[in-house]
């Protein structure tokens, strides 16, 4: 049986985390620099379209996710980052749907 699209996506997220975590230091955690690289390389349109390239955005996201304040993100802490990204993507998606609906019905 082949993986479903969601199963494949989950595998890719796990693989991506470990690929970037292995770049320096502890291979089970992401540093701020590793998180910055992961986001820049893997969600570039998101980073561009929502103005997320600002250094403070990733820094604040990192600080909020780093629950134990060790300046590293373990996989569980990385899940917080993913949650924020999915939430922001969802909001962007909803705005696009609303804009398209309003344009189709001359509501602007």
TrEMBL record:
Domain called EF-hand: residue spans: 60-88
InterPro entries recorded: EF-hand-dom_pair, EF_Hand_1_Ca_BS, EF_hand_dom, S-100_dom, S100_Ca-bd_sub
Keywords annotated in UniProt: Calcium, Metal-binding
SUPFAM superfamilies on file: EF-hand (SSF47473)
PROSITE patterns: EF_HAND_1 (PS00018), EF_HAND_2 (PS50222)
Name of this chain's protein: EF-hand domain-containing protein
């Amino acid at each position: 049986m082949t993986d479903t699209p969601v199963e494949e996506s989950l595998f890719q997220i796990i693989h991506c985390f470990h690929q970037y975590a292995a770049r320096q230091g502890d291979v089970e955690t992401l540093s701020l620099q590793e998180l910055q690289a992961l986001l820049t390389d893997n969600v570039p349109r998101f980073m561009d379209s929502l103005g997320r390239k600002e250094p403070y955005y990733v820094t604040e996201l990192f600080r909020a996710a780093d629950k134990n304040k060790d300046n590293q993100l373990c996989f569980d802490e990385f899940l917080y980052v993913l949650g924020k990204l999915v939430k922001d993507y969802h909001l962007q998606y909803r705005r696009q749907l609303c804009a398209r609906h309003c344009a189709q019905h001359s509501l602007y």
